Amino acid sequence: MMEGRVVAAHGRQYLxxxxxxxxLPCFTRGKRSDVACGDRVDIMRSSDDQGVIEAIQPRTSLxxxxxxxxxxxxxxxxxxxxxxxxxxxxxxxxLITRALLAAESEEIEPLIVLNxxxxxxxxxxxxxxxxxxxxxxxxxxxxxALEHAEDLRPELYGVTSVLVGQSGMGKSTLVNALVPEAxxxxxxxxxxxxxxxxxxTHATLYHLDADxxxxxxxxxxxxxxxxxxxxxxEHAFREFRAYLGQCRFRDCRHNQEPDCALIAAVNAxxxxxxxxxxxxxxxGTQRDRKSTRLNSSHDQIS
Length: 302
Fold this sequence. Notes:
The protein has helices at about 95-105, 125-135, 155, 170-180, 180-195, 230-235, 260-265, 275-300; strands at about 1-10, 15-20, 25-30, 40-45, 50-55, 60-65, 70-75, 80-85, 110-115, 140, 160-165, 205, 215. By secondary structure, it is α/β, with parallel strands linked by helices. The radius of gyration is 21 Å and the shape is globular. The relative contact order is 0.13. It contains eight helices and 13 strands. Mean pLDDT is about 90; it is low at about 195-200 and about 290-300. The strands form two sheets. Strands 1-2-3-5-4 form a five-stranded mixed barrel. The chain has a two-stranded antiparallel ribbon with strand order 6-7. Helix 1 crosses helix 6. Strand 9 (about 110-115), helix 2 and strand 10 (about 140) form a beta-alpha-beta unit.
């Protein structure tokens, strides 16, 4: 039995880095796999150039998204989530909020990167949209990946970070600027996994230095939180925490109930109304999906 670190994940096929730096293509047993990029695993060689993942070692964190049908693992054992947005094309406030909630639920430190700040005419509007998050204490770094990607490097030092973002935000440009050998590493991974053009669809871990790692993940357009219940979502809104448990009713839905501490905080201006509305949209989505699953099961029974 050997130990290794998963540095690329594509379907049920993984590339595991051994202690001596060797990259070994590995598979899992069975049809279902819960292995993520960044996982530390126990493996057995099945041949000279291939191995089998026998076990996943305990994780410090797991970032993933989910909906009513499935879950998508993004990265494991990460310390920091770097959400990349840009002055153009337009970014989704909802996706940022959901990614922040996923990070908060796993106690992963979030960082928002505003890219393409060289587009001066687009910068004020993008800054204004991010003010809501800045007021909550979320760190925001402004840069241009084409010219000043190095501005991000100090924020990545000494931790394992994972990049997420919508397509078109310049995430790949940022990775290539920070990791000059990224394209070569991607080709090596592609050759090892024989995955060809699919290399852009899986998460990849890069070593920035001896103490810092960066995991690049595929571009995404939504961030489902189906794995979180209402109480977990409430707690993931960091500005809600001081008021939770102070409502008149223990099972308060923070909708129209009397003496709701959250509604009072919104009315007093202590909680941003946009964030409060985002909370209800997310909770409504969770409820609708659960209702759909329940109705579907009733249809199957009948």
